[in-house]
Predict the structure.
Amino acid sequence: MFANFRRTVLAALLAGGLPLFVQAASISAPGHFAEQQLRHIATYFPGRMSGSPAELLTADYLQQQFSQLGYQSNTRQFNTRYEWLEKKGESRTHKVTATSVIAARAGAVPQEILIVTHLDTWTPLSRHEADNNLGGLRLQGVDDNASGLGVMLELAQALSKTPLHYGVRFVALSAGEAGLHGMDDYLARMSEQEKKNTLLVIDLNSLIVGDHLYFNSGINTPSAVRKQTSARAVQLAHRYGISAASHAMTARDYPGVNPFDKAGMPLMDVTAANWTLGNKDGQQQRARSHHFPEGNVRHQTERDNLNYLDRWLPGRITQRTRDSVKILLPLLTELANPTT
């Protein structure tokens, strides 16, 4: 049912003149393509909850983008579940089939760099959340996490024709929200050799609303790798006059220990937040204010959308997509093609 639905809707979108941006890809300012993609995904694929028609459409769209860039691309589905809580306290199990997109380009050697971002938006876990517009069908998820998808696609575009010593693998991961264990499932399907060949995992998440860009190494990431990744990213940011920092991650930091980090794989988590505010754990993105009463916009349908963010943070989407690409693209180029 969903398969026929998504084919029909996607065909209608494309026939109606909505561009597959890759077709018109050209040299442009850093972040421009990422912003185009962010706005396209947020506008045409709201409510990207795991297992929803919108998620399937998003996955189809992303796969087409990667394929047109020349990547070996496919989708991967897995079954998961979550608990729904009614007002009176009754709990019901909801089963969903989540769809992720994987795109890879091999290098001269088997080792590769993994760039991950979650494609799903928040799934309400209770009647209370649904009634308070947390997640659901209207959530555009601009910050969380069309921003990560847009930046990922521009990085993929830029690296699509660059000679690579180490390969790159892009994963738009479903079930990254709501404790649905999307990362756990991806890890469980990796062979021991694939894990050994993964030199670094870069996780992109919520890049717009926070006060500063953070490039945080995982708890178990060796100091030598930190120097080449998170420290190097901050160095590049300061070279370009971009506000960026690196935080020493702990188990108490939001949203908890990353599964890749827990598995002992080198990790760099990229997000926008402010670790000096609130509980100093990265959950708060900015100071509380009239327009941002929670100090963040996560899961908030009325705030994490294009109209709201363009009005109350004018120019921020352009700035952050540009800054993210200006830092990450040269960093990835260095890492994928190390000097001897």
